[in-house]
Amino acid sequence: AAVAGWITALAFTVIGFGAMLLQTRIYALSSAGPPAKWTTKIKAAVSLWRDPCVFLLAGINLTFGFSAGFMNGYINSTYTASQLGTFAVPMLAAFTALLAAVASALFGKLASRIGKAPIVGIGSLSFFCIPFCFFALSCCDEWEWWLMVLYVLQGVGRAVYESTGKGVFADFFPGDAAGAFANNMLQNATAFALCFFLSDHLKGPALAAVAMVLSVATPVGYFAAYRIRRAQGSGAE
Fold it and tell me: For burial by CB atoms within 10 Å, which of 6, 41, 94, 126 has the most?
């Protein structure tokens, strides 16, 4: 166990050092103009609330928030730590983030060929399968390393949230990117906040149920928003 801990610590040190070196290769994104007031983003977000598409597209953001709450607040502590050891919790969290980063790039290329709708469907299905495993497959007693299946699904769903999900907002609100992304982040933050403040009531099964319902609602909301934009003559994918 001690050796495994040192290996994990060394791996994270190397990855962290590599991430620090990669920071030297990023573009300078600072604006040459005066800094915007903090109220500007709030106004930009609220200004879009008259458009129902903002709320119809909230599915992937809310689903990710509740699914992450289920994985981090319940699966990690109830199953992963007890069956695999506490070292596995940060290791699998890093694996999920790495998988999401790789899959995001792949989904970006795929979306340019087949459109974003199928990718949203893949993300919704991935999030749906996590609570499905919990309810239908009697997850997760004695699953041990098969628990990685849940982290793979979370990583794929997160990839869609991080890449295609934000791209969908950009497509639907091409003239107001600031307001679109402000709402995108607000919706996800709302899901995380609800998971935190309602933690006494939203236990594992309840979180799983909410994530499952939202994952089903995500493609429904997307196509409803698409039909609205199509009726308005907009070219959102």
Answer: 126
Ranking 34-43, 130-139, 204-213 by mean pLDDT, the lowest is 34-43
CA angle 218, 56, 220 (to 5 degrees): 40
Length of the chain: 237
Buried b (16+ CB within 10 A) or exposed e, 16-39: eeeeeeeeeeeeeeeeeeeeeeee
> Is the pLDDT assigned to residue 71 strictly greater than 70?
yes
Radius of gyration from C-alpha coordinates of the chain:
19
- Tens of pLDDT, residue by residue over 145-195, are 999 999 999 999 999 998 899 899 988 988 888 888 889 888 988 888 888
Q: How confident is the model at residue 123 (pLDDT cuts 50, 70, 90)?
A: very high
> Six-digit token pair at 127?
């999030």
Q: What is the DSSP letter of 37?
A: P
Q: What is the DSSP letter of 24?
A: G
- Asked if 137 and 155 touch (Cβ cutoff 8 Å), the reply is no
Question: For 176-203, where are the alpha helices, taking DSSP H only?
Answer: 177-197
Cα 52–Cα 53–Cα 58 angle in degrees, nearest 5: 105
Q: Element (H or E) spanning 60, and its range?
A: helix 59-70
